[in-house]
Every structure is written in C-alpha cells, then in structure tokens.
Specification:
By secondary structure, the protein is α/β, with parallel strands linked by helices. The chain has a single domain, classed as Alpha-Beta Barrel (TIM Barrel), CATH 3.20.20. The chain contains twelve helices and ten strands. The chain has an eight-stranded parallel sheet with strand order 3-4-5-6-7-8-9-10. Strands 1-2 form a two-stranded antiparallel sheet. It is globular, with a radius of gyration of 19 Å. The relative contact order is 0.14. Mean pLDDT is 93; it is low at 281-285.
Length: 285
C-alpha cells in the first residue's frame, strides 16, 4: 500500500480510501430507522483496514457513521483517518457545532480527522461556517477542515475566509469518464495550492469495473499486466494525476475492497497513461 501526505498537513495516509455512500434507499431506511447496521459493510471496512487502507470517508447524510464506529471499535484510533461531512442545512455556527458533536457520538470517537462541508449553502455565508469550524479545531474536536462539491469560485472564496488555518482538502467527482476537474480549474488549483483532493465515484458507478468492452483501452492494458483488473487500471490512472489525489471507492463488499487494495501491484507505463488520457474517444465502443 502506498502512503501519501494529505495536502499540507504533514500526515501520511493510504493513497486510496474507502467510501461509505451506498444508495438513496439505504439512506432513507436508516433515517426512518427501518434498517440496522449492515454487517457486510462493516466487514468490508475491516478488510480494507487489514490491508493497509487507513482513510474512511463518511457523512451524516449517508447514515453510515455508526457503520464506521463498528468497524474501528477494536482499532488503534490514531491508525485510522476518519473524514465525515456536515450537510448543507447544518452550516450555521450553531447547527454545525451540533452536527459535529452528533457525528462524534455516532462515530464513537473524541475527534474527527477531517470535517468537511458536504455542499455549499445558498443561505449561510461560508465565512460563518468556517469560523465555527476553526473553533472546533481549536477545541480538538476536529483536526482538519475540508470542503466538498465547491466550484472553483466557491473554493477560492472559502480559502480566502480562513483566518488561522487552511482548507486541507476538497472532495469532487473524478474518474476516467468524468474529467470536469481538468477543465474547470479545480484540479490545477488544488495542485498549485497543495490541497488534497478526495475523488469520489472513482470507478464511475461501476462502469470502469463491470462490463468493460474486451476491445477497449482498459481491457488491452489489463492484458499487459498479469493478474490486474480494470479497477486497478482506473485507480492507477487517477493516482497518476497528482500526489494530492486520493480516490475513495465504495466499500460495500469485503472481496472488492481487498481487490481495490491491490491496485499498486503494477505501474502503468507512460504509453498506457497516454492511451487512457484519450479514452474518451472509445468510451462508447
């Protein structure tokens, strides 16, 4: 497992993480208390931890903070980097403090490594939210502050509002098929400012793993590396885009998580990376 410095924090974590967004039906059932903790999801996270993955991403919206709590309860807390998010309706100074305390309880921990704004608010000034998050950091309830789903203008505004700390990371959709970050300035901005980028949907909702055409670029590259799979190609390509990038594929199946952890069993050649950069030409073959 490769470990990378998380932005400018000085902390090294696994270069890939584990996401815990499952599906809307799961979220609704959890909100209505119709479904308990899924043991398969817990075992998936445990498998990842056993194979060297130290980053787990969750959110109050997902209803999976308790799943994370169950997965890490017998672990050394300092060995796991937990990221969670406050939803956009909890961004006033009063509400985000309550949301943070609630997440701490759900996670069964004294501190959150990375506390993120899930979506920007159209009503609460980001300055108000960030100032309260800085207070939470001073109190030791969180270690780092992050944002998620912020466009470039909002990202730059959030960075400018920080008084005593820095925005450690942003979280955006990024994969071989969805490359908006390469054109909207966010990828370049993050590199220039050494801001970590958590890439969600790194496997394009499974399109880069299931049903990959045998004549596609990905399939041809898999044939070049014995024992490799499409998921390894997809993750390797993402990681090649910068030392600040951390893909967070969903962890719902123990076998799949272990498979993800083996992404570094080979390295893509420069020629293969170039072919993948042009994959949009054969996406729909």
């Amino acid at each position: 497992m490769e470990y990378r410095e998380f932005g400018k924090t000085g902390i090294k974590i696994s270069s890939i993480g584990m996401g815990t967004y499952y599906d809307p039906a799961f979220i609704i059932s959890r909100k209505l208390h119709l479904k308990g903790i899924n043991r398969t999801n817990v075992e998936a996270l445990k498998s990842g931890l056993d194979h060297g993955i130290t980053l787990i991403d969750t959110a109050e919206l997902y209803g999976t903070e308790e799943v994370v709590k169950e997965a890490i309860k017998d672990r050394d807390r300092d060995s796991v980097f937990i990221a969670t998010k406050a939803f956009s309706n909890h961004l006033s100074s009063y509400k985000i403090r309550k949301a943070c305390i609630r997440s701490l309880k759900n996670l069964g921990t004294d501190y959150i490594d990375l506390y993120q704004i899930h979506f920007p608010s159209h009503f609460i000034p980001v300055k108000e939210t960030l100032m309260e998050m800085e207070k939470l950091l001073d109190e030791g309830k969180i270690r780092y502050i992050g944002i998620s789903n912020f466009d470039l203008a909002r990202t730059m505004d959030a960075v400018s509002q920080m008084k005593r700390y820095e925005i450690a990371s942003t979280q955006m959709c990024y994969n071989l098929y969805d490359r908006q970050l390469e054109n909207n300035g966010i990828l370049e901005y993050c590199k220039k400012n050494k801001m970590a980028l958590l890439a969600y949907y790194p496997l394009a909702h499974g399109k880069l793993v299931k049903g990959v055409d045998k004549e596609s670029t990905i399939s041809r590259i898999v044939e070049n590396h014995k024992g490799s799979k499409p998921v390894h190609v997809a993750l390797n390509w993402l990681l090649s885009k910068g030392d600040n990038i951390f893909p967070i594929p969903r962890a719902s199946n123990p076998e799949h998580v272990v498979e993800n952890s083996k992404y570094d069993s080979f390295k893509l050649t420069d020629e293969e990376l170039s072919e993948l950069d042009n994959i949009m030409n054969d996406t729909h073959k």
